[in-house]
Design goal:
alpha/beta; 8-stranded mixed beta sheet; about 30% helix; 7-stranded parallel beta sheet
Amino acid sequence: MSYEAEYAKKLTTPEEAVKIVKSGDWIDYGWCANHPLVLDKALADRMIKEPDLTDLKFRGGVCLWMPEVAKIPNAKERMCWNSWHSSGYERKLTDKRIGYYIPLRFSELPRNYRDNIKHVDVAFIQVAPMDQHGYFNFGLSATDIAAVIECSDKVVVEVNKNMPVVLGGHEVSVHIDDVDMIVDNGGQPIGQLPSGQPSEIDEAVARLIVPEIPDGACLQLGIGGMPNAVGAMIAKSDLKDLSVHTEMYVDSFVDIARAGKLTCAKKAIDKGRQVFTFGAGTQKLYDYVNNNPAVMAAPVDYVNDARVIAQIDNFMSINNCIEVDLTGQVSSESAGHRHISGAGGQLDFMLGAYLSKGGKSFICCSSAFTGHDGETKSRIVPTLTPGDAVTATRTNLNYFVTEYGIVNLKGMTTWQRAEKLISVAHPKVREQLIKDAEELGIWRNSNKR
């Protein structure tokens, strides 16, 4: 049978495809831009019509829109959303007790499926159109989708002609022989994640980090305003011969590439290729990566592997955090018991960058924020807020940056760490932090005030 004939045989409507879902099933939506659209809507409609269809458990990550299945009446009683990394939409689901976080180190995600989860009832994955060889490219998210498909009883692909085709090395597509059903979504717009305008604080932090980056460096930028501000400043800098090996590909990389600064010529591995595991941004990004030999998608167990990162000299990892304590423990995924995002690849890249020859990892944040009571709240605290998840231990923290300065904590004692962190805290809270450090026994009389 030809691929075209097999395609016609497996092609069906969203309404027919979602009939395979049963009460109690685990349903996987893949990752980020690959979450299904018309299948999600059809399943939500079926749940509304069939109140006995219940106890559905979904997995996904970095939602670019609110899943329709989470909007049905009495959603909390009939389904739950389980996220590998939360966006603002998933944060709302968690606040409503519909959503839950799955703790992980991002590099381990494919292995989580293959070795631990092992079984998925249904996978609904948005993909690019089938090529002449019978393959559907995963487009913007190579992340873990091959592993999800391997573990799934039923695989339904939702074909979108607007999904970019992103070239890569391995595990970036699925063959029609491994697909049970095909649904055409009519060319729905791809979900977008605009970067937003950087704040004055974001730009102040970026001005401190960019001088630390040498020509020929390899870049990893995390999610958020500060990493994007760094990217925007790099695009306008005199830096040259830069490379990319990043968990998430964002609009800033397109700007750096168009400025002629991304050659990827200095990389020991994947030379000439900008490597990422998933991308999310604006149409500018989607047009740039489509069939572009200069970029390369790969599964997250390759991209985020510290052993892979360590092979690339002058690796620069730049990520955000929510809070850090006076010994250097980093919290980047929760504010107390309230879940915010996820561990992602922050620890993976901190470890890999430090193993890289000439590599550096930067954790950055604003020194403070204004609370609901109008008071200045420090992000540098004596001890982490109860409930905070420790994303990176104090042994992992290399460079820490706020708008007030940049400090390197590697090799520092607890009293030196306290002194350095307080030196970049908001001026309003420094004296109180010194008192706190004295009470904790990590302040010496000889410390600078």
